[in-house]
Amino acid sequence: MVRAQAQSPVTVAAARCETNFLRKALFPPASACDQTMEALYRLGINYHRAAVPTGGPELTVQFGKAAKMTYEGPGGSYRVTGQGLSPKTPGDALLPALKRAAGAAGYPDHAALDEVNWPTAIASLFGLTLFAAMTFGPLAAYLVELFPTQVRYIASSTPYHIGNAVFGGFLPFFTLAIAVFRGDIFAGLIYPTAIAGATVIIGALFLPETHGRDLT
Fold first, then answer.
1. pTM recorded for the entire structure
2. Which of 25, 70, 88, 204 could form a disulfide with 57 if both were Cys (CB 3.0 to 4.6 A apart)?
3. Residues of the chain with confidence (pLDDT) below 70
4. Could you read off the pLDDT of 131-148 as tens digits, one per residue?
5. Residue 95: Cβ-neighbour burial (10 angstroms; 0-12, 13-18, 19+)
6. 42: how many CB neighbours lie within 10 A of its CB?
């Protein structure tokens, strides 16, 4: 995938692309541009956006010099041209057309497991799990010490579950919207990273020390 993106970078030139971040996060894609960008994201392909040339089709997805997908709407089909592809091929639906163009440009249709650095991948997952354990282990004890017995259950569970529901519940919406908006499949990590950073700052500034506190 990395080699294909370096050799055949993807450019999306389209009209009627949604530029409102909240609409992109909360509503399904409506235009051919928005549907194409979301499909590229789901295929794991990064892309850049460009202006539509005068007189050009409503949508053009260029895979470097290797392949091109175009769409003439509304109600039209997606056509793919490129290396090794017949120009007389009938129009496709969006996803099959994108896969044909990506395949012609050298993009793999599945992960190359033999090229994965397994020790690094396993160590990374172990490290992330270790940080999660380091968080949730002390958290339970801290919440017990933070509130008096009379209100401990409701005082600790209410903000905990609201936080999970609000910030965790909106995670799929905002990560997808950020990644599609920026054309980078990893850009959605901005959201959980920003939330985690905010909790570190807020916790360090405002949460009190509970060592030696009376638990009654």
1. 0.77
2. 70
3. 18-25, 74-75, 86-92
4. 888 888 888 888 888 888
5. middle
6. 14
